[in-house]
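So, can you check what follows?
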Amino acid sequence: MAKVSVYNMDGKEVGTTELSDAVFGVEVNEHLVHMAVVNHLANKRQGTQKAKTRSEVSGGGRKPWRQKGTGHARQGSTRAPQWTGGGMVFAPVPRDYSFKMNRKEKAGALKSVLSDKVNEKKLIVLDELKLDEIKTKRFAEIMKNLNVEKAYVILSDDDQNVIASAKNIPTVKTTQTGSISVYDALKFDTVILTQDAAKKIEEVYA
């Protein structure tokens, strides 16, 4: 098991804890991580782009000139794709870009990212993260004490004081153990989690 230091909110080391190798010590699978990131971005796409085909543009109902004898190429409509104002060939239509990853693939990607953060010493474990009131300034102080700027904070429960306090800090994002994003874990330099959150993650993924 990987042994990591445990810090308090003042940034002082208060002990150590062992993290399960089944979650925080696996071999990094870059393919699954890449797949999870592509999945996240694809699922966010609206897919609402639209252009009109020749059957959808207005006008062009009348044949512009007779079939033969004019010296022009034959034309059936002024709304054909080669005309200005005509429809588009193979026009894009609204579509769904999302695709599914199975549960084991998602778990493998998450464990790979968490293990990589441990290897790079960019995972910080806190003994607890509790605030008596919603105070952005206090949360910013905690980040400064830990010497962290961009952080992905994983909480064990829905602590609204902590969540609301971090909300106005653009370089910090909070989440709970049940909705950890591989994309966000990669996007932010450091992953911060409490001991309780680490235990919950191990219970689910170990």
